[in-house]
TrEMBL record:
Membrane-spanning segments: 107-125, 132-149, 155-177, 184-200, 206-221, 228-251, 285-302, 309-328, 334-353
Protein name as annotated: Uncharacterized protein
Biological classification of the source: Bacteria, Pseudomonadati, Pseudomonadota, Alphaproteobacteria, Hyphomicrobiales
Lineage top rank: taxon: Bacteria
Cleaved signal peptide residues: none
Keyword check for Signal: no
Length: 380
């Protein structure tokens, strides 16, 4: 079933065009063009570098009314000092598009992303050892592969984001399920991936909120060297993952902590009934319910203390992210998909990586909780 869905996705993707009329697409493709033209110096997105007419040609191909006026181009803004016009999206999506030949970038990007997601789904299916785990792996794997077409096609930034969420979910689950001596290495991997996700969508930086809340509270409640080092390593690894964003900010805005988004007018957070109704009537709402319910069930039935702590992390991360987007002044069909996929992948891997007691042995017996006289009786 997974392979059939993957083949169907690839067939659909092979007929996609890079001139579908979406303004953000042009910006991601322009960033890729700059990387291919100037190498790492492509981080500089100033319109002064638009000397080959690439942006104008792309805008004209989608019928943009002011295609010949660079300062009217979508997702470009003037820096605070008024010195230049730069792009607002972070550089990650343009970088991954630049890995493929110009004119044929979107199709291979989505094909590769689909292959990765199908690989994660097959891995979860292979690791499942019990009926419940096998069922969950089959259902969610099919859902994850389907989502690589809709809503992932809505934005080029979503394809790499989905891959990062799946990988971060796997490492997060291993961090709490296995609790191996290599725990710090897993924390480094999770931190780098969470930071790197912001290179594809700035809003992805919120994906780390629950992690910092959990590790911060862990240190406050258990003041130990281990909890301190875990939080410190996570923070440092997260900053390493953010380096591409810092570099782009420094090149374009003159300061690593000043984003090009700062030059745009943005509404303050507020509870807009129209936005809330939009989420209630969108596919994202049942996914929110599933993620919240799955987190609650993981807490309720977990027989491993690490898995219970994982449920707390997921609950905090879901609460913070959903609160952020509920107060966001704009709604789209994919805004909360990253946090939902990160949570659901983590839940799935927590289930399939957790081994139950051997068959034929009672759970209480395996935990050493049955009285000796009961253990000595022959089981019927």
């Amino acid at each position: 079933m997974f392979l059939a869905m993957l083949a169907s996705n690839i067939t659909l993707i092979s007929h996609w065009t890079e001139s579908r009329g979406v303004y953000d697409d042009i910006c991601y493709l322009r960033q890729a063009h700059l990387f291919q033209r100037f190498g790492w110096q492509g981080l500089d997105t100033s319109l002064a570098r638009e000397t080959d007419g690439y942006l104008a040609a792309k805008l004209r191909s989608i019928g943009f009314p002011n295609w010949n006026e660079p300062t009217r181009a979508p997702c470009h803004t003037q820096t605070a000092d008024g010195g230049k016009w730069v792009m607002t999206p972070p550089p990650g999506t343009g970088f991954v598009l630049a890995l493929f030949p110009e004119g044929f970038q979107v199709v291979p990007l989505y094909v590769v992303a689909n292959l990765f997601i199908a690989g994660f789904a097959l891995y979860a299916l292979w690791r499942a050892r019990e009926k419940i785990a096998l069922t969950l792996a089959a259902l969610f794997g099919a859902l994850a592969i389907y989502f690589m077409i809709n809503p992932t096609k809505a934005s080029y930034s979503m394809a790499p984001t989905m891959v990062v969420c799946a990988l971060a979910g796997l490492f997060t689950a291993r961090l709490f399920v296995d609790e191996r001596p290599r725990r710090l290495l897993l924390i480094v991997a999770v931190g780098v991936l969470l930071g790197l996700s912001a290179s594809f969508r700035i809003a992805n930086v919120v994906l780390s909120a629950g992690y910092f809340l959990f590790f911060g509270l862990s240190f406050l409640t258990r003041r130990s060297r281990e909890t301190f080092m875990s939080g410190l390593v996570l923070g440092l690894a997260f900053l390493v993952g953010l380096l591409p964003v810092f570099a782009a900010n420094f090149v374009n805005s003159g300061h690593p902590l000043v984003s090009a988004y700062g030059g745009q007018d943005t509404a303050p957070p507020s509870l807009d009934p129209a936005v809330l109704r939009a989420y209630l009537h969108d596919t994202q709402f049942p996914l929110m319910v599933i993620a919240c319910l799955g987190t609650a069930l993981l807490w309720r039935f977990a027989q491993h203390s690490g898995v219970r702590r994982l449920a707390l992390l997921l609950a905090g991360n879901l609460a913070l992210n959903l609160a952020f987007f509920a107060t966001h002044p704009v709604f789209t069909q994919y805004y909360v998909i990253p946090i939902l996929m990160l949570s659901l992948w983590t839940l799935l891997f927590a289930v399939v990586l957790t081994r139950g007691p051997p068959q034929g042995i009672d759970t209480h017996q395996a935990d050493g909780l049955r009285p000796p006289e009961v253990l000595s009786r022959p089981q019927q």
